[in-house]
Known about the structure:
Elements: H1 2-15, H2 18-41, H3 45-65, H4 71-93, H5 96-124
Amino acid sequence: MQTANQAYQKSKFETASPGELTLMLYNGCLKFMKLSKEAISNNQIELRNLNLTKAQNIIRELMVTLKTDGEVGKNMLKMYDYILHQLTQANINNDIKAIEEAEQYVTQFRDTWKEVIMINRKRQHGGGQA
Length: 130
């Protein structure tokens, strides 16, 4: 069963569009932030660190793949930098509020990105109709 799930996950990543991969990164980041908050609540320091480090790595990946030749890209880079700062502070200070603030921004980015993907799919498959 585990190998079938692993094969499915691998296939999902290999066949995903760049937009879908970005959406997966946002969702993964949110998952790791949620797990980090639970670890803080349960005083599981190693688990908190592990999950916050994973969330930070995702934000770093989003930062290095971001096109910053326009104003929107430059502003997003600043936001990613702020999110990364909040996650770092959360890890240092065991701070759920810092995670929640970062979580709000990542959720907004994820929701916006999901909407963009849906709009693009509608355009590609039927001239604007679902």
